Amino acid sequence: MMLFLLTCLLAVLPVVSTKSPIFGPEEVSSVEGKSVSIKCYYPDSSVNRHSRKYWCRQGASGRCVTLISSEGYISKDYEGRANITNFPESNTFVVDIAHLTKDDTGNYKCGLGISSRGLSFDVSLEVSQGPEHLEDVQVHTAELGKSVTIKCPFKPENMQKKKSLCKKSGQNCPLVIDSLDYVSPSYSNRVKFSIEGTSQLVFSVSINRLRLSDAGMYLCMAGDNPSSTEQRAVELQVLKPEPELLYGELRGSINFDCALGPEEANEPKFLCRMSDGEACDLIINTLGKKAPAFEGRILLSPKDKKGVFSVLVTGLKKEDAGRYLCGANPRGLPEEGWPVRAWHLFINEESKFPYSPSVVKGVAGGSVAVLCPYNPKERNLQKYWCRWDQNQNGHCPLLVDSEGLVNEMYEGRLALYEEPGNGTYTVILNKLTSQDAGFYWCLTDGDVRWRSTVELKIVEGDPSLKVQENVTAQVGQTLKLPCHFPCKFYSYEKYWCKWNNRGCQALPSQDEGPSQAFVNCNLNSQIISLTLNQVTKADEGWYWCGVKQGHRYEDTVAVYVAVEEAAKGSHNFIQVNAHANKEAVEPNVRVVENKAESSPGLVVEGREGTGDQAGGSRAAADAGSSEGQGGSSTVLVSTLVPLALVLALGAMALWVARARHRRNVDRISIGSYRTDISMSDFENSRDFGARENMGASSVTQETSLGDKNEFAATAESTTENEEPKKAKRSSKEEADMAYTAFLIQSNNMAANVQVNPSEA
């Protein structure tokens, strides 16, 4: 069972998952004795251009029997009346068959490969009976929407009698027009009666704007009595326009060239696509209407004054495949009876065109980089970028090209970069605004199939790169421009460049380390600076800061540098404050405004986190800051700062006292009795006031303590002091007294500060 299911799956997969890139006409019709040409397209590749081409006929069993091939084989049925020709420059081959017969009606395939099982396309051929086989019938053939003139001869005896033309409908023949000025309502304003001259004995009926319903059998009549009226049969064949085949590539472009004739030159033009049935849905017309599905990727433009116009469609999709009609009439809509031309568009899904996004998104103040493909064989041709105008069907005004043209409205924020050899070029647009949203086209002077479109959308968000918007420098000074990069660009190549109408020339720059313009970010956020030494008027202009990966450009930001004559006593070095643009810095990032000083040696740094500057810049900044405060803030600061210092010193003194106490405490054991004795208990300075060792003898006493025996050796009897000894204090008591004295001293100092804050 599993084997059976696997076999079925393998049989179905090729059918549903692959689509042959070979394309030709689905239906071909002709008449006996005539000839027919079937054109088949194949994908553009060297292998396909040299592969075997064939034409085969499908049998009832599903087998396709080869009738003719490009390798010289031809079947007996086709000998002398068929051939196959390859056109590698247009990636097509044509099968010509002459002397058609009814037996040629059937289903065929035009294909590519070593056998009839290769890539192929199904073609249905129908051969009908020719008009020459109808006896005593005059046949007229005309295309849909065109005109036809039916000439009706008559006998001399009917010269003065009524002439008329009627159309047969079953057993009846309703009148179309006669010589007495009658006109059928269904032919109103499009039929005309005339007699060319009495000597020729012929009257003519002209019918214009032919409809499919006009086809049929007509009778030319001369006479008043139906029983004796002279009659001649005329057959009118109205042919649908044979669709021209168009082979399109997915993501590529296609051009519909429509030639209708000079009589429709002044009528509104349109292009529509056939849907189910006979309806033709409007895509675009010269009256300003467009289908939403083709918004931004279609242009209609007249070519000359003879009714010829073209419609270009870019960004082809799979759903664009189908039948199309172009035409002209007063309403600019498809209507029966007006001339049209037809196409059958095939979309090759195995496209050679590189993938590029159809939509790019940018934020206000940010930038976008658009990648435009072009035919690598045409790398020396001029490249363009234009903006599609939704109000004008044939208008896409140029914004920039590869020869240096830049629209003046985009000066300083638009550049085109060529990448020779890789089949793409890049267009960068920065300083975006909401007005920049819309559709843009990539064009070259070469193959129109490579034209492409992209939609630019402006979304909510903040620009990734941060610089000051406008900078003013002075002649002769040194200018430093910082640019902030967020963490996501840590591994990207950073650069500064000076913009001109031919692009943006890279300039040397240096990394300034971490940036503080981005919060919630690690040290991978950076500042890169551009330094201009000895600024001149030639340095004035637009400068870009950007990132790239290899040859692929990413975000950019532009800043304009204005240069003016140096003022007397100005600096020799100016650095643009990295945080001058308040909107570019998060609220919790501190920004210090740098003020110009008269000292020529002062270097003002705009980036936070730097050390003290030469010439005492930190002191100057502190002084300037103090002068800007009010009187109440000065008193508060003057009071709190000394008090904090006193408290800190007191805490340190207390810690030292306790540390010394712990160091001087020894634990001794006398028998089973354990006690802590401070070494200060053996000193006299604490017991006898300010005089050192006043009650101590010069003879050292040594005492030995043991479990049972006690020895006391005295070299000299001690002299007792006449004053009575004071009671000894413990070390804890001494510490408490020292802490009490510290608190009293601190309170006194705080009181003095409040009384006279200026002295503090």
What brief labels describe this structure?
760 residues, Immunoglobulin-like, 6 domains, five-stranded mixed sheet, 5 helices, elongated, disordered C terminus
Number of helices: 5
CATH architecture of the largest domain: Sandwich
- As for the CATH topology of the largest domain, it is Immunoglobulin-like
Please write the CATH class name of the largest domain: Mainly Beta
Strand order of the largest sheet: 1-8-7-3-4
Q: Indicate the mean pLDDT.
A: 76
Quaternary structure annotation: single chain
User: Beta-strand level of the residues, as a percent range?
Assistant: 35-45%
Radius of gyration: 50 Å
Counted beta strands: 45
Describe the overall structure:
- The protein folds into six domains: 19-128, Immunoglobulin-like (Sandwich), CATH 2.60.40; 134-239, Immunoglobulins (Immunoglobulin-like); 244-348, Sandwich (Immunoglobulin-like); 359-459, Immunoglobulins (Immunoglobulin-like); 470-614, Immunoglobulins (Immunoglobulin-like), CATH 2.60.40; 639-652 and 734-760.
- Strand 15 and strand 16 (230-239) form a beta hairpin.
- Helices cover 12% and strands 38% of the residues.
- The protein has five helices and 45 strands.
- The strands form twelve sheets. Strands 1-8-7-3-4 form a five-stranded mixed beta sheet, with no helix packed on it.
- Helix 4 (631-664) packs antiparallel against helix 5 (731-755).
- The longest helix has 34 residues, at 631-664.
- The protein is mainly β and 760 residues long.
- It starts with a helix and ends in a 5-residue tail after the last helix.
